[in-house]
Each structure stands twice: as C-alpha cells, then as structure tokens.
Amino acid sequence: MQKLSLRDKIKEARISAADSFRGGKLMSSIFRPGSPFRKGYVDSPRNRSYVVMNNVLYHLHPVKVKRHGVRLSYTLCLGGLSFFLFIVLTITGIWLMFYFRPTELAYVDIQNLQTSIAFGSLVRNMHRWGAHLMVLVVFLHMSRVFYHGAYKAPREFNWVIGVILLLLTLLLSFTGYLLPWDQLAIWAVTVGGNMAGYTPVIGAQAKFGLFAGLEATTATLLRFYVLHVLFLPFIIVIFMAVHFWRVRKDGGISGPL
Amino acid sequence: MVDIPEHLLLRSAEARAKALGISVEQALAEMKGETEPTVVAKDPEIKVIDETPAPAAETPEAETPEAETPAPAAEKPAPAAETPAAETPAAETPAPEAEKPAPEAEKPAPAAEKTAPAASKTDTPEEVDFAPEVKVTQRLLTVVKAKPIQKPVAEPVDKVNTWPHLMLPEFVSLMAMTAFLILLSAILQAPLLEEANPNVTPNPAKAPWYFLGLQELLSYWDPQIAGVMIPLVLGVVLWMAFPYIDRNPETHPSKRKFAIMFYTFFLAGAGVLTIIGVLFRGPGWNWTYPWIDGIWFDDLLDWIHFE
C-alpha cells in the first residue's frame, strides 16, 4: 500500500474532523432534520419538504408551490424583494442609529457620518436609495397583483392589507426624509405637512400633530425620528405578518391566468 | 365462499322463514347448509327444472343401469350425468364429483343414499335452490362497498417543491438586488444640502418624489380637492375597496378589459403628473425644460447632468 504523505494525512484528518463535527451533537441540535447543513443530507423529496418545514425562515413558504408560480416572469419576485428591501433598510437603519442624534446636532452627525466614519457614506446611500427603491418595488408589486387579478376572491382582504402596507411604506419614507435635517429635508416635509393641513375639519389639528407645533422644528425632527425608527416599523411588521399569513391561507399564489 | 355478514344472513333468513312458514332458526340452518332444504324434500315435482324424472333418482333401482356398466361411467363421467341416475342431487355437482359414485356402483343402494347429503354439503349454498316455488323472495345479491356519494371537487394541481425550485430564484433575485443597491450607492451620492433653515425658503420647495404628483395637482385645483379629497377618496378608500367593487371573477386580462383600462389610466396619470412635478417644474412652480433650465429636484442632482 502506498505510504501516505504528511500532507495527505493532515488532509484526511481534517476531513474526518469536519465530518464528525457536522454529524456531532452540537450541529444536529442546531440544524433540524432535512437541513442541507446536516451531515448526510441527500436530495430526496422527503428532505426537500423538511428543508421548508423545519426552518423558521423558510416556513414563510409552503412545502410545495404551483408550478407557474416559480416562473420569474410571473411575479418578478416583487413581493419578496419588497420584504428583502425592508430587511436591508432595517439593518442599515439600525447601523445609522449609532451615529445619529435627532436634535440640532442631526445635520452635523450626518456630515460626520459621510466624512469620518468607515462606510458611513455607503450605508447612508444604501438606506436612502433603498427606501426609494422600496416605494417603487411595493408600487410595482401592487400593479403586478392588479394586472393578474390576484386581488379577487378569496384574496380581497389581503389587497386591503397590501394598500395599508403601501401607505405605511410611504409614511416611513416620508418621516425618514426629514432626518438629515438639511434644506431639502425640512422644506419637503413642510410641503407635505401643509398638504395634511388642507384636510377638512381637522386640518389644523393634523398639521399641528404632525409638526409638533406650527412649523417644522427640532421637535418635529424628534417626532419623525420616533415614528420612523420605532412606531411605524412596529406597525408595518404586524401588517406584514398578516399579509404573508393571508397569502398562504388564501391558497398561495394566484393564477395561472 | 364469500363471507356474508351475519345481520344480512339473518335478514335473508327471516324473509325466507316468512315466505315458507318455517322458523327462522330452521331457515338459517338451511341456508348455512346444515340441514336439507325444506322445499326440495317436501315437493319434488315442482323442483324439477330441467324436466327430468326426479323420483327415479331416489329409488335404488334407478342406479342399477349405471351399476351394470361401471366402466363407461367411470371413464366418461360427464355423459353419465345425462343418464336418469345422474338426476339425483349429485348431478348438480360439477363433473369431477360424478367420478365419486362410479367406483361404489357395485353397491348401488347405499351409494345413492350417500351421494345426496354429500352433494348438499360440498355444494356452495348459492347453487342450492332454496325456494323454487316462491320465485319472488328476498335474496342477497351483492355486498356493496362503501363509497363517497359526492365527487371530490378539488382538481389536482401541478406543484413543485419550494426548495429548490422557488427558493433558488428568490435567492438569486435577492443577490441581484443587493448588488444593484450597493452599486447604486457607490456611484450616486445621496443629497445633503446646507443645514435646515426655516427662514430661507428654497424656490421651488418640492416634496419627496412620490408626493410630487399630488403637489402638481395642487397647482391646478383648490387644495381641499387636490390635496385631500383626491388622495383620500381616490387613493385610499377607492383603492382599498377595489376588490369589493370589482365583482367580475375573471382573471384573464382579455375578460376584464375595463378594470385593466381603469388601472392603467390612473397609473399613467400618476406617472405623468409625477414626472412633470419632478422634471418640468422650476422656480415659482413654472414650467421648465430639464435640458434647457436644468433639474430642479435635489434628489436627482447627482444623477443627471445637463451642460
């Protein structure tokens, strides 16, 4: 028998160590049966079902979906991308919160973020363009659903939730618009707030409530900040949960046409 | 023999007992083949169906012709059944049975007596004519298996496994979106103007782009209508109630032309208004051309440059 070189012996030991680690108690306690990360995963119909059933994240999906629904041209993945953009915005947003104070110092903080902090400019850009993209993608998702007639029975109520999600997305984007505290931000929000002031009967109160005063000040900044980072995400997550749940309860993807 | 459920057998026996005027136990015993059928013994003339002299079978003499020629009977059992002797109940048995009496033909009398009960026991009860004189009576014809009365409505749907057929394209589009977003963020700088100053109003002051269609509408009509009624009534209430207004169950575009037209009309309207608001409005909300007067929308400052 050929004598193994030291290099081969090390390689063999490494492979067997990796194998026993993957098949060990720790890994099998983390990954449930059917996980591709478990030792001995084979591509079988049973394991394909387990991948979805035994994973909390994949559990958004059913084990099986209608064949036409997996075609990229049917949904363009718009709903999934809306959700993904929300996650990206949450992650970048939390990162930005470390460097931002919703006070008179807000503008300085943004300047410092762009000039003095590693990746600060990139993450801020991602958050801003991602927000614009999310508004666009949510809107396109709604249009896709409309053109497929996917709002029809039994999915009527999920359409209503979807419209609420669109409005919440707009509100999130709008409240975030003020936070850089520059001329663009304050005057865009002033224009928007003045529109709310035209509401019949409660116009003045709506405007006062939005601005926390008669015009956009640092009090408005704090108000928008709390709405933007806490209140609206909280609400939108609840509605998203119902939205995703209803997608499955109403029979999964609509169609085929 | 098929196992007939006890309660069905009992019901059949009751009907038979009623028809023949015998006790249920007796009928039941007859049906199970434990005792000889009542009518066959009682009324031989009517029993004869194939019009052969039945009484001859019961006399020992009748066996003699066959007994005299034992060899042919043994060799050809089937033709033997055609002789009068074979008209005993034994004749109803299949051909192999007929071979049995043949060797015993030397002792004709006991043989004939033996065959009759032997036949009724080996025969299946279905072949025994229980009540030939009562032609209309209750009989167990068949046991019907339990089946659903209603047809299942659900059609089989062509489905594929989510993993990997759905999650792979999802993952790819997610990666593509991430790449696009990072690339966009690396190339385009988000705008940051000078610090907010409530005393200096920019001209024009524009809302975020998704509200610019509304701001454009505001320049045409009274703010109560353009700023509130249209977005609130049209944008929210009508939009949410749409599935409840559109009751047409069809989903194919060719069968819902009005709905498609309606949506496309508002989509185009909102799009045109937004584009006008973003690109074609300058100081004092006057009409400007972006290629002549430049862009008056700060979010786009870094995007497009016109010389």
Describe the structure.
The complex is a heterodimer of chains A (257) and B (307). Chain A is an all-alpha fold. Chain A folds into two domains: 19-60, no CATH class; 74-249, Cytochrome Bc1 Complex, Chain C (Up-down Bundle), CATH 1.20.810. Chain A is built from eleven helices and one strand. The longest helix of chain B has 23 residues, at 223-245. Chain B is rod-shaped, with a radius of gyration of 50 Å. In chain B, 20% of the residues are buried. Residues 40-48 and 51-122 of chain B have low confidence and may be disordered. At the A-B interface, α3, β1, α5, α6 and α7 of A face β1, α11, α12, α13 and α14 of B.
The name of the CATH architecture of the largest domain in chain A is Up-down Bundle
CATH superfamily of the largest domain in chain A: Cytochrome Bc1 Complex, Chain C
Q: Give the percentage of residues in beta strands of chain A.
A: under 5%
Which CATH C-level class of the largest domain in chain A is it? Mainly Alpha
Topology at a glance:
The complex is a heterodimer of chains A (257) and B (307).
Chain A: H1 6-22, H2 25-30, H3 45-53, E1 64-66, H4 72-75, H5 78-97, H6 106-116, H7 120-147, H8 156-178, H9 183-196, H10 203-211, H11 218-249
Helix pairs in contact in A: 5-7, 6-7, 7-8, 8-9, 8-11, 9-10
Chain B: H1 6-20, H2 24-31, H3 38-42, H4 44-47, H5 55-58, H6 60-68, H7 70-75, H8 77-80, H9 95-98, H10 108-122, E1 159-161, H11 162-165, H12 167-187, H13 209-218, H14 223-245, H15 257-279, H16 290-293
